[in-house]
Amino acid sequence: MPTKIKDRASQPAKRRVAFLLSAPDACSVKLAGDFTGWEESAREMTRQDNGSWKVIVTISPGLHEYRFIVDGQWADDPRCDARKPNPFGGENCLRLVE
Questions:
Q1: Is 8 a member of any domain?
Q2: 30 — alpha (psi -120 to 50), left (phi > 0) or beta?
Q3: Domain count for the chain
Q4: What is the percent of the chain where pLDDT is above 90?
Q5: Can you spell out the DSSP letters for the chain?
Q6: Rounded to whole angstroms, how far apart are CA atoms 89 and 77?
Q7: Where in the sequence is the domain holding 65, given as residue range(s)?
């Protein structure tokens, strides 16, 4: 049976998306989401001079779930109003990438 090859031109182009979190007292911050395999490949964020943390990821358009890991503890994005309950009794933040 022949393998089906997807036409790259028909797939939406991935977008560069910035994620920011103000956590001036944190020692480490990671971004975890459905686009990182959650904890499996969580992305290290970089501390900015003002105490915030930033990372830019390249992800496909669509609705994505994410959370931050601050010093080993799961944390919400306080700037995100769109949330969805997760199976652990908390909520995941939602980001629409167009």
A1: no
A2: beta
A3: 1
A4: 88
A5: -PPP---GGGSPPPEEEEEEEE-TT-S-EEEEETTTTGGGGPEEPEE-TTSEEEEEEEE-SEEEEEEEEETTEEE--TT---EEE-TTSSEEEEEEE-
A6: 16
A7: 14-97
More confident residue, 5 or 21: 21
Q: Note whether residue 24 is domain-resident.
A: yes
Q: What would the mean pLDDT of 64-80 be, rounded to a whole number? A: 97
Identify whether 3 is part of a domain: no
Contact 98, 90 (CB under 8 A): no
pTM of the model: 0.86
With the C-alpha atoms ordered 26, 46, 22, 71, is the resulting torsion angle positive or negative?
Answer: negative
Token reading at 44 = 């290290």
Domain harbouring 65, CATH code: 2.60.40.10
